[in-house]
From TrEMBL:
Entry-linked InterPro entries: Cbl_synth_CobG-like, NIR_SIR_4Fe-4S, NiRdtase/SiRdtase_haem-b_fer, Nit/Sulf_reduc_fer-like_dom_sf, NO2/SO3_Rdtase_4Fe4S_sf, NO2/SO3_Rdtase_FeS/sirohaem_BS
Domain of life, per lineage: Bacteria
Enzyme Commission identifier(s): 1.14.13.83
Ranges of residues in domain Nitrite/Sulfite reductase ferredoxin-like: 20-84, 251-308
Coiled coil: none
Keywords assigned: 4Fe-4S, Heme, Iron, Iron-sulfur, Metal-binding, Oxidoreductase
GO molecular function: 4 iron, 4 sulfur cluster binding; heme binding; metal ion binding; precorrin-3B synthase activity
Main enzyme class: oxidoreductase
Name of the molecule in the record: Precorrin-3B synthase
One Pfam entry name: NIR_SIR_ferr
């Protein structure tokens, strides 16, 4: 198994409000609010706009963005005008729609070691003035708390350390690789140097890489030196972030509501807006776990909120066996998709819910883009034009496998797997 050249795997671009993408069910309009934060009024407006101008389906992405689906050419101009008027459209230009990703708990997490929100704001102002950054480029700003961002696949990740430093890492082959550290006051300037240096390398033709993970090692070392990073520090291992459930925060609780495959209906978003006003602070936060976090929930309201959210189709139990199941919208909703990923994922899950309950991650992607999950999974399936799947054990959609199976063949092998060890034997890793 090896990384396939980016030029052979990359498809499409990064859609936004001003740059919609044509998909199988119409135009896709992606909103990228800073920190994933929306007021209840904004959430209500978006839900009503999705119902009026789209097909009523919304997606929460692996970066905590919100997508309105099924928009047509006739309704798009009015939708654009509405979202721009409400300051929900990205700035003009070809760069990233939103260059940073934060934990939805930023500013609330008692375990955070730095003010990740303030650091992200400093980086955003830097990125906004930097021309030449690819549209998909982004920086993860991790305060070191309860929801680690290790799996989001950022170009550059900044993670708060225990000693007041900020660790700099690059995502490669599904893992984070530490490249250095900086003091908190120096972190914004070091990030600015990294971003401007990468842009200069692209502009002057020194590299064609569109993501830092694809940059040649000697050029990475050049950026590290320019940014004056100190030697990398060892980072504490943290458990994977919960995808659902109740999380203690200062002054109450936050409730993280998960959605199967990140798909949200307009009525669900309207209910979330209403719950945020009724039980919380009239704010909702979109999460990179493809869910919605409601902060500021008092003790006496938690059980009522959980019960109502469960009845509305949200996943509220951190141990729900559906949570390790990851899938994109698939065919026919997405024009790039080659297979019906959600239907196939549910079929696999129905056969092996016990395996998922053990924490085995299963990622079914309709094409090599891997929109639903940028990192590794215990088993990754990548849709092929012939309707079969490239099977990648313990890897990501960026990896190449010579194992190509139909969904029925995959089902047969899964039925014989009761543990992770069985899974490894059923889908032996192959290289070429």
């Amino acid at each position: 198994m090896s990384a396939q050249p980016v030029s052979e795997r990359r498809r499409g671009w990064c859609p936004g409000v001003r740059r919609p993408m044509a998909t199988g069910d119409g135009l896709l309009v992606r909103l990228s609010p800073f920190g994933g934060r929306l007021t209840a009024d904004q959430a209500r407006l978006i839900a009503e706009a999705a119902r009026e101008h789209g097909n009523g389906h919304l997606d929460i992405t692996a970066r905590g963005n919100l997508q309105i689906r099924g928009v047509n050419d006739g309704t798009y101009p009015e939708l654009l005008a509405l979202l721009a008027r409400e300051d929900l459209a990205e700035p003009e230009g070809e760069g990233p729609n939103r260059p940073t990703v934060l934990s939805p708990l930023a500013g609330l997490d008692p375990h955070d070691r730095i003010d990740a929100f303030a650091l992200a704001q400093a980086i955003e102002s830097t990125a906004a003035a930097q021309e030449g950054l690819p549209a998909k480029f982004f920086v993860a700003v991790d305060g070191g708390g309860s929801l680690p961002l290790d799996a989001v696949g950022a170009d550059l990740q900044l993670t708060a350390g225990e000693d007041g430093t900020v660790a700099f890492s690059i995502s490669s082959s599904g893992n984070l690789h530490g490249i250095g550290a900086a003091s908190l006051p120096h972190a914004p300037a070091a990030t600015r140097t990294f971003l401007s240096g990468f842009s200069d390398m692209r502009r002057t033709g020194r590299t064609e890489a569109r993501r830092l993970r694809d940059l040649q090692p000697h050029l990475v070392q050049e950026l590290i030196a320019s940014a004056a990073l100190e030697p990398a520090v060892a980072m504490l291992q943290r458990p994977e972030p919960p995808r659902a459930g109740v999380i203690p925060i200062e002054g109450g609780h936050a409730v993280l509501l998960a959605l199967p495959f990140g798909r949200c209906g307009t009525e669900q978003l309207l209910q979330v807006a209403q719950w945020s006003e009724r039980f919380g602070t009239a704010e909702i936060r979109l999460s990179f776990t493809r869910g919605i976090l409601l902060p500021g929930i008092a003790d006496e309201h938690v059980s009522t909120l959980i019960a109502e959210a469960s009845g509305a189709g949200f996943i509220t139990d951190a141990n729900d066996p559906r949570l390790p199941l990851l899938a994109c919208p698939g065919k026919p909703d997405c024009a790039n998709a080659l297979t019906p990923a959600p239907a196939d994922a549910l079929r696999l899950a129905s056969a092996r819910s016990d395996l998922l309950a053990q924490g085995t991650n299963l990622h079914v992607s309709g094409c090599p883009k891997g929109c639903a999950h940028p990192g590794r999974a215990d088993l990754t399936l990548v849709g092929r034009a012939d309707g079969r799947y490239d099977v990648v054990p313990y890897g990501s959609t960026r990896d190449v496998s010579t194992l190509h199976l139909s969904i029925d063949e995959i089902m047969t092998r899964l039925l014989l797997s009761k543990t992770s060890a069985d899974l490894r034997r059923a889908f032996p890793e192959r290289t070429r």
